[in-house]
Design a protein that fits this description.
With 598 residues, the chain is of the alpha/beta class. The protein contains 15 helices and 17 strands. It comes from Phoenix dactylifera (Date palm).
């Protein structure tokens, strides 16, 4: 090759070029090695003491139990004896009056949460035991005179000495709840043979209807809002009858679709035909296909009753016609009617819904919202149609009670990895586990324990294993977890969605036993343990029990907090002596406020 001047290009000798490069490379490597040695020795001198503990602490965190400092919680003042954090009347004025939405759940922010122990009323006594409690309770445990004064002429209850007595009266059953339900059974034969097992009573009063149905094999959720005077839900739970605070207002009730076999309203004062029937649409959503809605009170039997309702016969007839038309548009049919009771039945299949057109009112809901979504979920003015994926959701297709308790429901397939085999295994597991519980807590299965809550169930196995005991169980499924509550209802059990980062919808001192299985393992990343345990203390009766099945990692920390709440706890092995899990069985102490006259 030549350059532009046509002079030859001189190439340097290869050997002479490689030698300096090699020498330079060697020098650089040596210098780097020298600097590296200095850095490593300095790093060991400067960081060695700090690094080692960090590595060890991480290792220890993975295996060592969680430890916290001991603490003692103060007593709340006496005006908190009936404190319901998320339905607190003291906070009502902060919220709007539209459709009574101020009575819905409105939980306080974290900065306003109470870190104190809710005291019992002055003169509180251990509740009367079931079944005697259905007919009487201690006045001092539920010291409300207003409801006694206002409803004594309707025989809801009466006060005699130190007790309230419940004669079984009601606004629409002056001859007693027994005669009222007898008539209802004649109108709905399925109430007699195990076809109907689960029911909801909206506006339940003191839950006499639900209490009577217990003897007839029907398990009822009695529902009423928190109020300043009546304390309907508190009376129900004090009697040993399932109940929960709630109101149909702007949000769905905390139950999955197609849950209840029957719904009931006895002059519950819910304006069913107003707001385009949105309250009836929610009843439609939670009723099982082929399920029944029972209404007594205005406008039923208006021909004979209108004079006592401060209205006219024409107005009541118009209201009844409007109600019938609205129910027909939702695919309800008038099933039976006699005297003060009318019964409608929800369509048992999709034939009626398939006839609805886009112009129909109310329209069918689209698929944009889950049928079972029911935790702070707004009500919608549309018909929630049953899923066509399931063929045995209907009341007539569901096995009768008690057979349905142990038959695998179709909705198991909605649970990730859910199967018939897994359901059967869960059922068997809880039979063994409850037998072990009874050896550690002999009161379980006796009349010492009536109201039970399973705080984080999967299929309701704990409740199923206790069906032959004189108890009822409120099964809680996490609103953030696996949606298995439909399976619980398919088995003929009852329950609710809930988020344990918040307070539950009940009064203080309403449960005899709280049970949890791995709740803190599942929720500790969201919910602070201290607040969950304080909420457990609020809703647990004095002398009540707690069974905690939990990872060994959390047990000691739970026991420390429990001691600060005046619980007495003992640690036990599980039924299989597993090292990774332990049992903590605690009992809440009965104590009185310092300023109490007790």
């Amino acid at each position: 090759m030549k350059n532009k001047d046509s002079k030859p290009v001189a190439y340097p000798d290869k050997v002479s070029r490689i030698v300096p490069v090699t020498l330079m490379f060697t020098v650089l490597c040596g210098f780097s090695f020298y600097l590296g040695g200095i850095f490593c020795s300095e790093k060991d001198r400067i960081f060695k003491k700090d690094v080692t503990p960090v590595i060890q602490s991480r290792k220890e965190t993975a295996v060592a139990p969680l430890q916290i400092k001991s603490l003692a919680f103060p007593e709340c003042s006496s005006d908190y004896q009936d404190y319901t954090p998320c339905t607190d009347p003291k906070r009502w004025r902060k919220y709007g009056n539209y459709r009574l939405s101020f009575m819905e759940r409105h939980c306080p922010p974290l900065t306003e949460r109470k870190q104190c122990l809710v005291p019992p009323p002055d003169g509180y006594k251990p509740p009367i035991r079931w079944p005697k409690s259905r007919d009487e309770c201690w006045y001092r445990n539920v010291p409300y005179d207003w409801i006694n004064n206002q409803k004594s002429n309707q025989h809801w209850l009466r006060k005699e000495g130190e007790k309230f007595f419940f004669p079984g009266g009601g606004t629409m059953f002056p001859n007693g709840v027994g005669a009222y339900v007898d008539l209802m059974q004649k109108l709905i034969p399925g109430m007699n043979d195990g076809t109907i097992r689960t029911a909801i009573d909206t506006g339940c009063g003191v839950a006499s209807w639900g209490g009577d149905l217990l003897d007839r094999g029907i398990l009822t959720v009695s529902l009423a809002p928190r109020d300043n005077h009546e304390a309907q839900v508190q009376f129900a739970l004090e009697r040993g009858i399932p109940a929960i605070l709630g109101i149909i207002s702007t949000q769905r009730l905390p139950f999955p679709s197609n849950s209840f076999d029957m719904a009931h309203c006895s002059r519950c004062l819910i304006p069913w035909a107003e707001f385009d029937g949105i309250y009836l649409l929610e009843i439609h959503r939670i009723l099982r296909p082929g399920g029944f809605w029972v209404l007594s009170g205005p406008p039923i039997n208006y021909e004979n009753r209108w004079r006592g309702w401060n209205t006219t016969v024409q107005e009541q007839k118009a209201d009844f016609d409007k109600l019938k038309k609205l129910l027909a548009s939702m695919c309800f049919k008038l099933y039976n009617k006699k005297d003060d009771i009318a019964v409608w039945q929800k369509s048992s299949d999709n034939s009626c819904y398939n006839q609805l057109t886009p112009a129909s009112f109310p329209p069918k809901c689209d698929d944009s919202m889950d049928r079972d979504s029911a935790w702070y979920t707004p009500l919608r003015s549309c018909i929630t149609t049953p899923s066509q994926s399931f063929k045995r959701l209907g009341l007539q297709s569901t096995p009768k009670w008690p057979k349905r308790l142990h038959i695998t429901p179709e909705r198991v397939s909605m649970v990730p990895s859910g199967s018939s085999g897994g359901f059967k295994h869960d059922d068997s597991k809880w039979k063994v586990r409850v037998k072990h519980y009874k050896t550690l807590l002999p009161a379980l299965g006796t009349d010492k324990i009536r109201n039970i809550m399973d705080m984080n169930t999967l299929y309701g196995g704990f409740a199923a294993a206790l069906t032959n005991s004189p108890v009822w169980v409120m099964n809680i499924v996490s609103s953030y977890g696996v949606n298995s509550l439909g399976v619980v209802y398919d088995r003929g059990l009852i329950g609710s969605y809930h988020d344990w980062c918040e307070a539950f919808s009940t009064y203080p001192r309403t449960y005899d036993l709280l049970h949890l299985d791995g709740l803190f393992t599942a929720e500790s990343h969201r919910c602070e343990m201290k607040y969950v345990l304080l909420e457990m203390d609020r809703i647990l009766r004095p002398n009540g029990y707690v069974i905690i099945l939990e990872s060994s990692y959390f047990i000691d920390a739970i026991a420390t907090i429990a001691k600060g709440m005046r619980w007495n706890c003992q640690k036990h092995d599980t039924e299989y002596n597993a090292d990774k899990e332990k049992l903590l069985i605690c009992q809440k102490k009965l104590w009185y406020a310092k300023n109490s006259q007790q």
